[in-house]
Batch of 2 targets.
Target 1
Amino acid sequence: GQNIDQPTEMTATEGAIVQINCTYQTSGFNGLFWYQQHAGEAPTFLSYNVLDGLEEKGRFSSFLSRSKGYSYLLLKELQMKDSASYLCAVRDGAAGNKLTFGGGTRVLVKP
Amino acid sequence: DTEVTQTPKHLVMGMTNKKSLKCEQHMGHRAMYWYKQKAKKPPELMFVYSYEKLSINESVPSRFSPECPNSSLLNLHLHALQPEDSALYLCASSPLPGQGNNEQFFGPGTRLTVL
């Protein structure tokens, strides 16, 4: 099985930086995804890591350490529209490559 | 076309009704998924289809019956549901493993209420 942990909620100020951590335990790690989900909407893909290191995509970056079972999503230059839930999801190659989501981190951006 | 569409957007049904949720994608993805999402919870996987064949069933009750008529369509047939089945039902599709990063594209979901 899998165990994926991320903080429940974070608050940050517009223009600031926020880092959302995700730790996981899985028997057949085959990639980690970050999704953004606004209330009442579908999740949208943000980033993917399968090798150790940092992936940068505009204002969003994601880091992975497979040996530590750890990832983070970094959101820079926060904007009000970034207020959403951020979901860490791990793909398990030993379970048909299914995706299991963490509980999600609600980020509230304040002016 | 990088979109997954779902119909209907909203559905209200009684416990004795039979209804179906529909999902469609034209990205050539050969893996399709059904998820259930309760309020303030993450999506929970229900079913996975690979090459139009059911490959994962996460011990979902038989009152939920998936169907994949072809590579673009995925249905979820509902019968004799319970009020606790009220949730957002999300469909997703992705390339198969070994084809890119297998990012899953999600549809907008069907908001289901069971009375």
Note: The mean pLDDT of chain A is 93.
Target 2
Amino acid sequence: AQKVTQAQTEISVVEKEDVTLDCVYETRDTTYYLFWYKQPPSGELVFLIRRNSFDEQNEISGRYSWNFQKSTSSFNFTITASQVVDSAVYFCALSEETGRRALTFGSGTRLQVQP
Amino acid sequence: NAGVTQTPKFQVLKTGQSMTLQCAQDMNHEYMSWYRQDPGMGLRLIHYSVGAGITDQGEVPNGYNVSRSTTEDFPLRLLSAAPSQTSVYFCASSYSSHRGGEQYFGPGTRLTVT
């Protein structure tokens, strides 16, 4: 069965610091998809990125970057020069090619960026 | 496009009452699902549907019913509310043809059962 672990429950940083959110996953499928979602204090879920299991290229989008390593089953998320607006709960999720097509979520990491 | 809409936004129920959480999408997505979010546990799948007339159970289906009579709507019914069903409920939809496709989430319904 698939599983996503986000070991960091809460992280607090000061503005402009870099911060990395860890995500470790388990799956038996060879084809799968990894996601990151942001949940700001307003409560909605905001899609950030999707990565399939055959694409191990790291991705950068502005201050955000993602490091996908199949060898360690990790899909870590780094925010560079954090801002107060980055304060949110961040979820890593996994979807397998077989089965329900649903997302399996980690328990989330709450990021607090202090001014 | 309104995307995925959910009503109501907030609801308070007494133990034993029943109610229906509404979910609708206007993107012609075949796949729809319901999740619940509890503190420290992320989101967990309750029920899902791969098309009109087809539903199946997720990880935590007990106490909930669903039906899918149209592509657009996927209501979630609480048969006899219990305090353990106090949670935030999210509906999501996606294209069925792409398993790795982005799931679009509604704004959520915050339910309290007293």
Note: DSSP finds no helices and eleven strands in chain B.
